[in-house]
Design brief:
mainly alpha
């Protein structure tokens, strides 16, 4: 059984999904441009760790459990949505604070970049559902143990490398200079983006709850 093409397929799917802008990109961008290169890389590391957890849970079949347990799944997603809305609120509030205060301090939620990246990714249980559906279609039956280990290595490494590239690009001198000049405006953009993601999850939960009652 030639498993290398399957690994390449999974790697391509994951990389393409990582490149789609979302909460992870916002978190890394904010930490890298607003704080430091090290902070951005720490956020990337947190995202990679959380990605490994979701992939491991998906391989264990927890994604199916979440999908079947509708109330539990909605509760977890609700917690994730509230977290994103809280981050958005903190960033939006900093947008309307005094310039001096904004320049001297980052919103508390981003003072621990590794934790911020980790929680941002972990707050999205759709990752487990996504990976479970992908594995159901792509994974070969009775694959050897090394194959599952390779999947974890690929996902963790790709997540760190891609978001690390984002961090390196946005922590350059030019990027940080422009960020410093536009701190409040960019805080507003990041806060708005996080809030949109949070409200989108809430709306999805509302629609699903309505449908389940019919």
């Amino acid at each position: 059984m030639d498993l290398l093409p399957t690994l390449a397929h999974l790697a391509a799917i994951h990389l393409l999904m990582a490149m789609v802008p979302g909460p992870n990109t916002v978190a890394v961008s904010y930490c890298a441009a607003g704080m430091s290169r090290r902070a951005g890389l720490h956020a990337a590391g947190g995202i990679a760790l959380a990605s490994l957890i979701w992939v491991s849970l998906s391989l264990a079949g927890i994604g199916i459990v979440l999908l079947e347990a509708g109330t539990l799944y909605r509760t977890i997603r609700l917690a994730g949505a509230l977290y994103l809305l809280w981050v958005g609120y903190k960033l939006l509030r900093s947008t309307f604070s005094k310039p001096a205060a904004t320049a001297s301090a980052n919103p508390p939620v981003y003072r621990h970049p590794l934790f911020s990246g980790f929680v941002t990714t972990l707050s999205n249980p759709k990752s487990a559902i996504f990976w479970t559906s992908v594995f159901a279609r792509v994974l070969p039956a009775h694959a050897p143990a090394w194959f599952y280990g390779a999947v974890l290595v690929i996902v963790g490494l790709q997540a760190f490398v891609w978001y690390g590239i984002v961090a390196l690009a946005l922590s350059s001198g030019v990027s940080r200079r422009y960020y410093t000049r536009l701190t409040q405006a960019l805080n507003g953009v990041a806060g708005f983006a996080m809030s949109v993601f949070g409200f989108k999850i809430l709306n999805d939960i509302r629609i699903e709850s309505f449908v389940s009652q019919d």
